[in-house]
UniProtKB/TrEMBL annotation:
UniProt domain FERM: residue ranges: 1-291
SMART domains per record: B41 (SM00295)
PROSITE patterns: FERM_3
Recorded coiled-coil stretches: none
Superkingdom of origin: Eukaryota
Cross-referenced InterPro entries: Band_41_domain, FERM/acyl-CoA-bd_prot_sf, FERM_2, FERM_central, FERM_domain, IRS_PTB, PH-like_dom_sf, Unconventional_Myosin_ATPase
Name used for this protein in its record: FERM domain-containing protein
Length: 302
């Protein structure tokens, strides 16, 4: 429960929530508002109560739009890790257990990361410990639990019994650790991967013939990456300081990248175009604020 007044900004609310949760820092987190089927990121500088408006829905032809009383609508306010910088597993246990682990596991299970069989055996053992703790009688359930332990696109590369044998072997090697320690170990292992803490968006593109028509548009603390979802190979990575313009309109996102020779415009189609724009804007703003902090102050005395 957080007290909010008419003059509370979203930034102040974020700081208040972070303090209540005893997070080591409020930076990097974001507030989102979900109503009906739409979720939007809240502007840091706006007053919280200004966000209590229904997202505008486009009415179908020939149908009248019903008046909706906002007081009858359930608004869900979501607080989560938004910008993945200064995330070092083990440094802030509250952040790791409350945000980092539950946000990173779904990305791993959706198959966004490139990893080896040994990685999957080890991580599968850790996730199995998170699920059952030290209850070894649950070994028989592993073949039915593979979608909770192994990336979705990798399950078919081995028979369920082979996965079971290797996951049990890893689980046994990890004996003696607690569920909490297993979560931190999971984060520690994947934090070394280049795609750790990245947000992935499925996009369609036709402007670059050298790239596949379907791409993962990936945003991380380093910049924007375009990845082939079939091979998980990196096509290109653009640091934020090379992205000179970006905008979204409807289901289209466009950005202009500065190169040594000329500027290149990349356009893609995705239902999450506005989310991509907001996330890039937030990272750019973060780096600009860091520059202001680290920039040496001019000497006022002569």
């Amino acid at each position: 429960l957080v007290e909010v007044s008419s003059t509370t900004t979203n930034r102040e609310l974020r700081y208040s929530i972070a303090a209540q949760l005893s997070l080591s820092s409020p930076e990097g987190y974001g507030l989102y508002m979900k109503a009906t089927h739409k979720m939007v990121s809240l502007d840091e500088d706006q007053y919280f109560f200004d966000n209590l408006r229904l997202p505008a829905d486009v009415p179908k032809k020939g149908k009248k739009v019903k008046e909706v009383n906002p007081s009858n609508v359930l608004f869900l306010v979501i607080f989560r890790r938004k910008l993945w910088f200064n995330v070092n597993p083990g440094k802030d246990l509250v952040a790791d257990l409350t945000f980092h682990f539950p946000q990173e596991v779904p990305r791993y299970l959706r198959g966004y990361h490139s990893c080896t069989k040994e990685d999957m055996f080890n991580l599968g053992g850790l996730l199995f410990r998170v699920a059952v703790d030290s209850d070894r009688s649950q070994f028989v359930m592993i073949p039915r639990m593979l979608n909770e332990l192994i990336p979705a696109d990798q399950i078919q590369i081995m028979l369920p019994e082979e996965w079971k044998k290797n996951i049990i072997s890893s689980y046994n090697r990890q004996s003696g650790i607690t569920v909490q320690e297993a979560k931190i170990a999971f984060l520690t292992e994947i934090s070394n991967w280049p795609t750790f803490g990245s947000s992935f968006f499925d996009v369609k593109q036709t402007c670059e013939p050298d790239y596949p028509p379907i791409l993962w548009f990936t945003i991380s603390k380093k910049g924007v990456s375009l990845i082939d979802p079939k091979t998980k190979e990196l096509q290109v990575m653009h640091p934020f300081n090379r992205i000179i313009e970006y905008s979204s309109r409807g289901n289209f996102f466009q950005m202009t990248i500065r190169t040594l020779v000329k500027s290149v415009i990349f356009v893609c189609e995705t239902s999450q175009a506005s989310t991509i724009e907001d996330l890039i804007k937030s990272y750019v703003r973060m780096y600009e604020e860091q520059k202001q902090i680290t920039r040496p102050r001019k000497n006022m005395f002569f």
